[in-house]
Amino acid sequence: MCSMCFVEKTRKMTKNDDTTMTTTTCRSYILAEAKRLDRAFVYLDLDGRFTYGTLRNTISKLVKEEKILKFPKECTARFILASWKDRPEYKRWFRNDKTPTGGRVKVFRDDLGARLVVDFVSFVESLDWGELAYVHDVRVEFDAVRIDGVSSSAGWLWSPRSHSWRRRFDLEFPLTVQVYDSGRVQVAVRCSLKPIPFDFEGLTRLAAVLGELKGLLGWSNVPNVVDWTVTSWHYGKDSLNEVSGSSLNATFATWSRTLGRIYCKSELKKIRVEEIQSPRRTIQALFEGIMNREEI
Protein backbone atom coordinates (compact mmCIF):
# COMPACT_ATOMS: atom_id res chain seq x y z
CA MET A 1 0.00 0.00 0.00
CA CYS A 2 1.41 3.38 -0.95
CA SER A 3 1.97 6.02 1.71
CA MET A 4 -0.75 8.31 0.25
CA CYS A 5 -3.35 5.52 0.31
CA PHE A 6 -2.46 4.69 3.92
CA VAL A 7 -2.81 8.35 4.96
CA GLU A 8 -6.21 8.63 3.23
CA LYS A 9 -7.49 5.42 4.81
CA THR A 10 -6.27 6.56 8.24
CA ARG A 11 -8.00 9.94 7.76
CA LYS A 12 -11.32 8.26 6.92
CA MET A 13 -11.04 5.93 9.94
CA THR A 14 -10.31 8.88 12.22
CA LYS A 15 -13.30 10.78 10.80
CA ASN A 16 -15.55 7.76 11.39
CA ASP A 17 -14.26 7.46 14.96
CA ASP A 18 -14.99 11.17 15.54
CA THR A 19 -18.51 10.77 14.12
CA THR A 20 -19.20 7.75 16.34
CA MET A 21 -17.91 9.60 19.39
CA THR A 22 -20.02 12.67 18.53
CA THR A 23 -23.16 10.55 18.09
CA THR A 24 -22.58 8.72 21.36
CA THR A 25 -21.96 11.96 23.22
CA CYS A 26 -25.00 13.61 21.63
CA ARG A 27 -27.16 10.61 22.50
CA SER A 28 -26.15 10.76 26.17
CA TYR A 29 -26.64 14.52 26.20
CA ILE A 30 -30.19 14.34 24.79
CA LEU A 31 -31.31 11.66 27.27
CA ALA A 32 -29.73 13.48 30.21
CA GLU A 33 -31.21 16.83 29.17
CA ALA A 34 -34.69 15.31 28.80
CA LYS A 35 -34.47 13.95 32.36
CA ARG A 36 -33.29 17.31 33.63
CA LEU A 37 -36.11 19.22 31.92
CA ASP A 38 -38.66 16.67 33.19
CA ARG A 39 -41.15 17.67 30.47
CA ALA A 40 -41.71 17.45 26.74
CA PHE A 41 -38.93 19.15 24.81
CA VAL A 42 -38.26 20.61 21.37
CA TYR A 43 -35.04 21.20 19.45
CA LEU A 44 -34.78 24.76 20.81
CA ASP A 45 -34.55 23.36 24.34
CA LEU A 46 -31.18 21.79 23.41
CA ASP A 47 -28.19 24.13 23.43
CA GLY A 48 -25.74 24.73 20.60
CA ARG A 49 -23.03 22.25 21.51
CA PHE A 50 -24.16 20.02 18.62
CA THR A 51 -25.25 20.98 15.13
CA TYR A 52 -28.90 20.72 14.18
CA GLY A 53 -28.06 17.88 11.79
CA THR A 54 -26.40 15.87 14.56
CA LEU A 55 -29.32 16.48 16.90
CA ARG A 56 -31.87 15.54 14.25
CA ASN A 57 -30.09 12.34 13.26
CA THR A 58 -29.50 11.27 16.86
CA ILE A 59 -33.09 11.98 17.87
CA SER A 60 -34.30 10.05 14.82
CA LYS A 61 -32.28 7.03 15.93
CA LEU A 62 -33.57 7.32 19.51
CA VAL A 63 -37.14 7.42 18.19
CA LYS A 64 -36.54 4.27 16.09
CA GLU A 65 -35.09 2.55 19.17
CA GLU A 66 -38.15 3.74 21.16
CA LYS A 67 -35.94 5.44 23.71
CA ILE A 68 -37.86 8.65 23.11
CA LEU A 69 -41.28 9.27 21.57
CA LYS A 70 -42.32 11.92 19.07
CA PHE A 71 -45.72 13.55 19.42
CA PRO A 72 -47.88 12.79 16.38
CA LYS A 73 -48.93 15.51 13.94
CA GLU A 74 -47.25 18.38 15.71
CA CYS A 75 -45.20 21.23 14.35
CA THR A 76 -42.89 22.20 16.03
CA ALA A 77 -41.80 18.58 16.72
CA ARG A 78 -42.01 17.64 20.39
CA PHE A 79 -40.49 14.66 22.21
CA ILE A 80 -40.61 12.86 25.56
CA LEU A 81 -38.78 9.94 27.12
CA ALA A 82 -40.58 6.68 26.32
CA SER A 83 -40.99 5.91 30.02
CA TRP A 84 -43.21 8.99 30.39
CA LYS A 85 -45.95 7.91 27.98
CA ASP A 86 -48.29 6.88 30.85
CA ARG A 87 -48.05 10.23 32.58
CA PRO A 88 -51.52 11.83 32.72
CA GLU A 89 -50.40 14.86 30.72
CA TYR A 90 -49.01 12.73 27.88
CA LYS A 91 -50.94 9.49 27.67
CA ARG A 92 -53.67 11.01 25.49
CA TRP A 93 -51.12 11.23 22.68
CA PHE A 94 -49.80 7.67 23.05
CA ARG A 95 -52.82 5.47 23.70
CA ASN A 96 -52.82 1.89 22.44
CA ASP A 97 -56.44 1.83 21.29
CA LYS A 98 -58.04 3.38 18.20
CA THR A 99 -59.25 6.48 19.99
CA PRO A 100 -58.03 9.61 18.19
CA THR A 101 -55.15 11.19 20.03
CA GLY A 102 -53.75 14.63 20.08
CA GLY A 103 -54.71 17.97 21.45
CA ARG A 104 -54.07 21.50 20.43
CA VAL A 105 -50.58 22.69 21.30
CA LYS A 106 -49.55 26.30 20.97
CA VAL A 107 -45.89 27.18 20.58
CA PHE A 108 -44.66 30.60 21.72
CA ARG A 109 -41.15 31.75 20.88
CA ASP A 110 -39.20 34.47 22.61
CA ASP A 111 -35.58 35.26 23.50
CA LEU A 112 -35.53 32.34 25.93
CA GLY A 113 -36.52 29.78 23.29
CA ALA A 114 -39.80 27.96 22.81
CA ARG A 115 -42.61 27.61 25.33
CA LEU A 116 -45.42 25.14 24.79
CA VAL A 117 -48.94 25.36 26.15
CA VAL A 118 -51.02 22.17 26.06
CA ASP A 119 -54.73 22.53 25.38
CA PHE A 120 -56.41 22.66 28.78
CA VAL A 121 -59.49 20.60 27.87
CA SER A 122 -57.37 17.86 26.29
CA PHE A 123 -55.37 17.52 29.48
CA VAL A 124 -58.41 17.27 31.75
CA GLU A 125 -60.13 14.79 29.43
CA SER A 126 -57.03 12.60 29.40
CA LEU A 127 -57.32 11.95 33.14
CA ASP A 128 -59.24 9.05 34.68
CA TRP A 129 -62.12 10.02 36.95
CA GLY A 130 -63.99 7.77 39.34
CA GLU A 131 -67.76 7.39 39.44
CA LEU A 132 -68.20 8.61 43.02
CA ALA A 133 -68.24 12.31 43.87
CA TYR A 134 -66.96 13.79 47.13
CA VAL A 135 -67.59 16.86 49.27
CA HIS A 136 -65.24 18.85 51.46
CA ASP A 137 -65.06 22.22 53.20
CA VAL A 138 -68.62 21.65 54.40
CA ARG A 139 -70.39 24.45 56.24
CA VAL A 140 -73.35 23.70 58.48
CA GLU A 141 -75.47 25.95 60.67
CA PHE A 142 -78.26 25.79 63.23
CA ASP A 143 -79.96 28.03 65.77
CA ALA A 144 -79.54 27.36 69.49
CA VAL A 145 -82.08 28.69 71.97
CA ARG A 146 -79.70 28.59 74.91
CA ILE A 147 -75.89 28.52 74.79
CA ASP A 148 -73.90 27.80 77.94
CA GLY A 149 -70.17 27.71 78.68
CA VAL A 150 -68.96 29.91 75.82
CA SER A 151 -66.12 31.95 77.28
CA SER A 152 -62.36 32.41 77.02
CA SER A 153 -61.86 30.25 80.11
CA ALA A 154 -63.55 27.36 78.26
CA GLY A 155 -61.19 27.64 75.30
CA TRP A 156 -63.26 29.97 73.11
CA LEU A 157 -61.76 32.96 71.30
CA TRP A 158 -63.64 36.22 70.82
CA SER A 159 -63.52 37.89 67.39
CA PRO A 160 -64.32 41.64 67.55
CA ARG A 161 -64.66 41.87 63.77
CA SER A 162 -67.41 39.26 63.46
CA HIS A 163 -68.75 39.69 67.00
CA SER A 164 -68.61 35.96 67.55
CA TRP A 165 -66.91 33.28 69.63
CA ARG A 166 -64.81 30.64 67.89
CA ARG A 167 -63.35 27.31 68.92
CA ARG A 168 -61.67 24.40 67.11
CA PHE A 169 -62.49 20.74 67.77
CA ASP A 170 -60.18 18.00 66.43
CA LEU A 171 -62.42 15.00 65.74
CA GLU A 172 -62.30 12.70 62.70
CA PHE A 173 -62.34 15.96 60.75
CA PRO A 174 -61.11 19.28 62.16
CA LEU A 175 -64.17 21.38 63.03
CA THR A 176 -64.37 25.11 63.67
CA VAL A 177 -67.46 26.30 65.56
CA GLN A 178 -68.50 29.95 65.44
CA VAL A 179 -71.22 31.28 67.79
CA TYR A 180 -72.98 34.61 67.22
CA ASP A 181 -74.92 36.73 69.71
CA SER A 182 -78.12 35.98 67.82
CA GLY A 183 -77.82 32.29 68.70
CA ARG A 184 -76.82 31.30 65.17
CA VAL A 185 -74.09 28.64 65.22
CA GLN A 186 -71.93 27.88 62.18
CA VAL A 187 -69.75 24.79 61.88
CA ALA A 188 -66.94 24.49 59.30
CA VAL A 189 -65.85 20.93 58.50
CA ARG A 190 -62.25 21.03 57.24
CA CYS A 191 -61.77 17.83 55.27
CA SER A 192 -60.05 18.87 52.05
CA LEU A 193 -57.35 16.20 52.45
CA LYS A 194 -59.93 13.60 53.41
CA PRO A 195 -63.04 14.41 51.36
CA ILE A 196 -66.33 12.78 52.29
CA PRO A 197 -67.90 10.41 49.73
CA PHE A 198 -71.20 11.81 48.54
CA ASP A 199 -73.26 8.73 49.27
CA PHE A 200 -75.30 7.32 52.14
CA GLU A 201 -72.25 6.08 54.04
CA GLY A 202 -70.40 9.36 53.58
CA LEU A 203 -73.29 11.45 54.90
CA THR A 204 -73.64 9.00 57.79
CA ARG A 205 -69.99 9.67 58.71
CA LEU A 206 -70.59 13.41 58.53
CA ALA A 207 -73.71 13.17 60.72
CA ALA A 208 -71.81 11.00 63.24
CA VAL A 209 -69.02 13.58 63.57
CA LEU A 210 -71.55 16.39 64.00
CA GLY A 211 -73.37 14.28 66.60
CA GLU A 212 -70.12 13.88 68.50
CA LEU A 213 -69.62 17.64 68.33
CA LYS A 214 -73.13 18.22 69.70
CA GLY A 215 -72.30 16.02 72.69
CA LEU A 216 -69.06 17.92 73.36
CA LEU A 217 -70.82 21.29 73.23
CA GLY A 218 -73.26 20.13 75.89
CA TRP A 219 -75.85 22.79 75.09
CA SER A 220 -79.52 22.35 75.81
CA ASN A 221 -82.30 22.93 73.28
CA VAL A 222 -80.02 22.24 70.28
CA PRO A 223 -81.84 20.80 67.23
CA ASN A 224 -81.18 17.22 66.16
CA VAL A 225 -78.15 16.92 63.86
CA VAL A 226 -80.33 15.78 60.93
CA ASP A 227 -82.12 19.16 61.18
CA TRP A 228 -78.91 21.16 60.82
CA THR A 229 -78.65 22.97 57.47
CA VAL A 230 -75.79 22.48 55.04
CA THR A 231 -75.22 25.98 53.69
CA SER A 232 -72.28 25.27 51.35
CA TRP A 233 -69.70 22.72 50.33
CA HIS A 234 -67.20 21.95 47.59
CA TYR A 235 -68.64 19.16 45.46
CA GLY A 236 -66.50 17.32 42.91
CA LYS A 237 -64.00 14.61 42.10
CA ASP A 238 -60.28 13.86 42.34
CA SER A 239 -58.43 12.28 39.43
CA LEU A 240 -57.52 8.63 39.83
CA ASN A 241 -54.14 9.46 38.29
CA GLU A 242 -51.33 10.85 40.37
CA VAL A 243 -49.91 14.06 38.96
CA SER A 244 -46.66 15.65 40.04
CA GLY A 245 -45.11 19.01 39.33
CA SER A 246 -48.35 20.64 38.17
CA SER A 247 -49.25 24.24 39.03
CA LEU A 248 -52.68 23.99 37.42
CA ASN A 249 -55.26 26.32 38.95
CA ALA A 250 -58.29 27.61 37.04
CA THR A 251 -61.53 29.19 38.24
CA PHE A 252 -64.66 29.48 36.13
CA ALA A 253 -68.40 30.13 36.33
CA THR A 254 -70.75 27.20 35.66
CA TRP A 255 -74.02 27.32 33.73
CA SER A 256 -75.89 27.46 37.05
CA ARG A 257 -73.87 30.58 37.96
CA THR A 258 -71.93 28.84 40.68
CA LEU A 259 -68.16 28.96 41.03
CA GLY A 260 -66.09 26.05 39.69
CA ARG A 261 -62.42 25.24 40.06
CA ILE A 262 -59.87 22.86 38.59
CA TYR A 263 -56.55 22.69 40.39
CA CYS A 264 -53.76 20.40 41.51
CA LYS A 265 -54.15 19.16 45.08
CA SER A 266 -50.42 18.85 45.67
CA GLU A 267 -50.73 17.04 49.03
CA LEU A 268 -52.68 14.22 47.34
CA LYS A 269 -50.90 14.49 43.95
CA LYS A 270 -54.32 14.66 42.29
CA ILE A 271 -56.13 16.99 39.94
CA ARG A 272 -59.35 18.14 41.60
CA VAL A 273 -62.41 19.47 39.79
CA GLU A 274 -65.11 20.94 41.98
CA GLU A 275 -68.14 23.17 42.12
CA ILE A 276 -68.81 25.40 45.12
CA GLN A 277 -72.46 24.71 45.89
CA SER A 278 -74.97 26.15 48.35
CA PRO A 279 -77.47 23.34 49.02
CA ARG A 280 -79.33 25.17 51.81
CA ARG A 281 -80.86 21.82 52.76
CA THR A 282 -81.00 19.93 56.02
CA ILE A 283 -78.94 16.79 56.45
CA GLN A 284 -82.20 14.84 56.57
CA ALA A 285 -83.22 16.28 53.18
CA LEU A 286 -79.81 15.37 51.74
CA PHE A 287 -80.23 11.79 52.98
CA GLU A 288 -83.62 11.62 51.29
CA GLY A 289 -82.19 13.09 48.11
CA ILE A 290 -79.49 10.45 47.93
CA MET A 291 -82.03 7.70 48.54
CA ASN A 292 -84.17 9.12 45.73
CA ARG A 293 -81.09 9.77 43.55
CA GLU A 294 -81.80 13.45 43.24
CA GLU A 295 -79.23 15.93 41.95
CA ILE A 296 -78.01 18.66 44.26
Description:
The chain has 296 residues and is α+β, with helices and mostly antiparallel strands. The protein folds into 2 domains: 117 residues, no CATH class; 158 residues, no CATH class. Helix content is 28%, strand content 29%. The chain is built from 5 helices and 15 strands. The strands form 3 sheets. Strands 5, 6, 7, 8, 9, 10, 11, 12, 13, 14 and 15 form an 11-stranded antiparallel beta sheet that branches. A two-stranded antiparallel ribbon has the order 1-2. A hairpin with a 4-residue loop joins β13 and β14. α1 crosses α2. The longest helix is centred in the first third of the chain and has 35 residues. The protein is elongated and about 85 Å long. The termini are far apart. The N terminus is likely disordered.
From the alpha carbons, calculate the radius of gyration and give it in angstroms: 30 Å
Query: What are the segments in which pLDDT stays under 50 over at least 5 consecutive residues?
Result: 3-7, 9-17, 97-108
**Number of domains as seen in the coordinates:** 2
Number of helices: 5
Q: Mean pLDDT, rounded to whole units?
A: 80
Which class of secondary structure composition applies to the elements? alpha+beta
- What's the total number of strands? 15
Quaternary state of the chains: single chain
Distance between the termini: 92 Å
